[in-house]
Amino acid sequence: MSGFLDDLRTQLKDGSFHPLPVWERKIPKPGGSGKVRKLGIPTIADRVVQATLKLVLEPIFEAGFLPVSYGFRPKRRAHDAVAEIQYFGTKGYRWVLDADIEACFDSIDHTALMDRVRTRVKDKHVLMLVKAFLKAGVMAETGHFEDNPTGTPQGGVLSPLLANIALGTLDEHVHGPWRPGGMTGSPVSRALRRRRGMPNWRIVRYADDFVVLVFGSRDDAKALRGEIAGVLAPLDLRFSEAKTRVVHMSEGFDFLGFRLQWKRKRGTDKWYVYTFIADRPIQSLKDKIRALTHRLSQQPPRDVLRRLNRIMRGWSNYFRYAVAKSTMQTLAIFVWRRVARWWMRLHRWSWTDLRRHLTDHTGRWRMPSSDGVELFNLGRVPTERYRYRGNKIPNPWTLADHD
Q1: What are the beta bridge partners of residue 169?
Q2: 8 A C-beta contact, residue 260 and residue 252
Q3: 135-145 in b/e burial notation, b at 16+ Cβ within 10 A?
Q4: Which of 150, 176, 173 lies closest to 163 in space, CA to CA?
């Protein structure tokens, strides 16, 4: 390993290092649409160099990134973005521009991106290295080399940071009036605009997924849509017409796997924005469980239980911050039944045999287990509210304030 790193260091110093084309892999997008997501897998050497570049570039650009973006940034999570929508949606931001950028990672204009990088980085060697990775090309699954005149392939260590650098111009434009020094930047100015019937807005972005919350009318949100389309155009980016829409909070919308909706609290006249689990991740989880417990599956029960547990633990850790207790219990019953039916077919058990193996001495049903591995019970996952952290998110490099 030390010899490999020494050779890599020498190549970088003498300028002989050249990135190789990334290996393209296509994976189906969720939802059964038939569309695929292209991943570009760099070589080991290229990953090491990209990781090194990231260590150099990230502090420089993090100092200027606005706190309204949450994707692939230190100390930030998808839950922070969702919590911000919930917080401000409850406070009056009821209209939402639910936006989707068409093939963002594949379409970013290289010239526009490099212009953004040059505003903060002057070292020519670093700039040449970043450009070399952008222009490295793609080795398609067919084995043919393809040039990539635009985009930063998903799958690389550096790609998320480069995407954030490019889309930073969107954050700066949309959130510009509310930044310190802006004419309408203070909370007092926002309140004055509301009293005068003028709109306020704020953007919440996670990588290429973003929403714009509007304290105003549907027309105000539509006007912002046209304005943002103009901001994206120089980056060679455009909205997906089929997926971008203006929606009221009471209708609800999906974001990062969650369903956010403004609803009346049961038993009261108070309304809040609640966070639920969207339909797609629930269906995706069920599909994975069905695949593992297929009636023709001959895998050892212990291995199946381990894989099921791994999937359900990861899924529940992400979604436990939603209003999801009932959903978790329903899914736990679904999983139990799938495993029980699979075991009956696998062992050729009757219903009586199943009761004998899966009930305790009191006659109560218990979770299936095999060789010391017990099925994870989704119904016992504790749910809680994820607290909005706002400007309390720690980041040693951030210079911008979040009002």
Answers
A1: none
A2: yes
A3: ebbbbeeeeee
A4: 150
- Total Cβ atoms within 10 A of residue 102: 16
CA 10 remoteness from chain centre? 37
Residue 308's beta-bridge partner residues?
none
Reply yes or no on whether the pLDDT at 146 is more than 50. Answer: yes
Q: For 207-232, b where at least 16 C-beta lie within 10 A, e where not — what string?
A: bbbbbbbbbbeeebbebbeeebeebb
CATH superfamily of 1-275: Reverse transcriptase/Diguanylate cyclase domain (3.30.70.270)
- Provide φ and ψ at 140, rounded to 5°: -65, 165
Q: What's the rounded Cα separation, in Å, for the pair 183 and 176?
A: 10
The tens digit of pLDDT for each residue in 186-211 reads 677 788 888 888 899 999 999 999 99
Residue 395, pLDDT above cutoff 80: no
Residue type for position 289: I
Q: Which amino acid is at 399?
A: L
- Cβ atoms 120, 64 nearer than 8 A: yes
Every domain of the chain and the residues it spans: 1-275, 279-380
CA distance 275 to 278: 9
- Cα distance between residue 221 and residue 55, in whole Å: 38
128 — phi, psi (to 5°)? -65, -35
Residue the block writes with tokens 């009036």: 177
